[in-house]
Amino acid sequence: MKTLFLAAAAMAALAASPAAAVELNFSDFSSTAGLQLNGDAAAANDGTRDVLRVTPALLGQSGSVFSTNAITLGADYSFSTRFTFNFNQQDDAFGGADGLVFVLQTNANSVGGGGGGIGYEGIPNSLGVEFDDFNNGSGDGDSGNHAGIDFNGDVNSAFLNTSLPFLLSSGSDLTAWIDYDGALGNLQVRLGNSLDRSAATLLFDQALTLDLGGTDAFAGFTSGTGSGWANHDVVSWTFRDTFEPVISTSVPEPANWALLIMGFGGMGAALRRRRAFAAA
Questions:
Q1: 36: exposed, middle or buried (C-beta count within 10 Å: 0-12, 13-18, 19+)?
Q2: Helices 254-279 and 2-16 sit at what angle, rounded to 10 degrees?
Q3: Does pTM surpass 0.90?
Q4: Tally of CA atoms within 13 A in the half-sphere of 209 that contains its CB
Q5: Is the pLDDT of residue 187 over 90?
Q6: Where are the beta strands (DSSP E) in 133-255?
Q7: Which of 19, 126, 146, 184 is the most exposed place for a label (fewest CB within 10 A)?
Q8: C-alpha gyration radius of the chain
Q9: Could you report the per-residue pLDDT of 227-259, keeping only the tens digit for each?
Q10: Which residues, including other chains, have CB under 8 Å from residue 10's CB and lie 6 or more apart?
Q11: CA distances (Å), 93 to each of 14, 60, 78, 199, in order?
Q12: Quick one: which H or E segment has residue 274?
């Protein structure tokens, strides 16, 4: 019985072990514990669910949301994140503005601006991945529906994609995956209209080396509105402090399947040994 108990305990421990540390995991925003909300950012109910409204659909708003505590990423800055967002109730005259930026920065949990800088402009020691639904001219590739990779608070994107597979201001849920493998120096950004990462469109696959001026970083979002506006809502969000793309929330991921199989194998071996001992 002792052997069987130990095997069962080992199986439970293996099955419960995460494939990676999940520092932040919000299936909704009925609670914002662990987050610092700044400016006009607030938890809100859109009529059917609790969302994180980084800016509301009003003139001249600015908001940012960051992890309350800094997250130590390690020397190579590897991370993976997935978030679902929704731009809705756009201003009819401008078709919505100004978008949403996922930000990783080493300054403080209270930084952020507004307006055409999408709340990201002027934040040093940072990486920003913007989803922008306003055309600010040549710096945006003359596109009112684009994504970009930004550095150190500069919204003139170092890498720009103006051929997105979906309209950001459609009022529909869209999901983004951002994965940085610091060991390889590679950043990938995907965009889809479901939680199926394999079906998402690869927007960026960039070789780059991050330098954020430190390894204790705050992860979160910024947004801003000006003469145009929209609700810039984050519907759900997972952030991991290592490179491990978020695949699914409904079934175990491959690493967890391996742990489960190992656990069941150990359980079976223990049962066989117990039966052999009883027969003897």
A1: middle
A2: 180
A3: no
A4: 3
A5: yes
A6: 146-151, 154-161, 174-181, 186-192, 201-207, 216-224, 231-240
A7: 184
A8: 22
A9: 889 999 999 999 999 999 999 754 444 434 333
A10: 263, 266
A11: 56, 15, 41, 33
A12: helix 254-279
For residue 205, list its beta bridge partners.
188
| 265: helix, strand or coil | helix
| Number of CB atoms found within 10 A of residue 6's CB | 12
Rounded distance between C-alpha atoms, residue 268 and residue 280, angstroms: 19
* CB neighbour burial string for 94-120, b if at least 16 within 10 angstroms, e if fewer: bbbbbbbbbbbbbbebebbbbbbbbbb
Structure tokens at 9: 């305990």
CA gap 31, 159 in Å, rounded = 34
Using alpha carbons, select from 122, 175, 128, 119 the residue that is nearest to residue 150: 128
Amino acid in the structure at residue 150: D
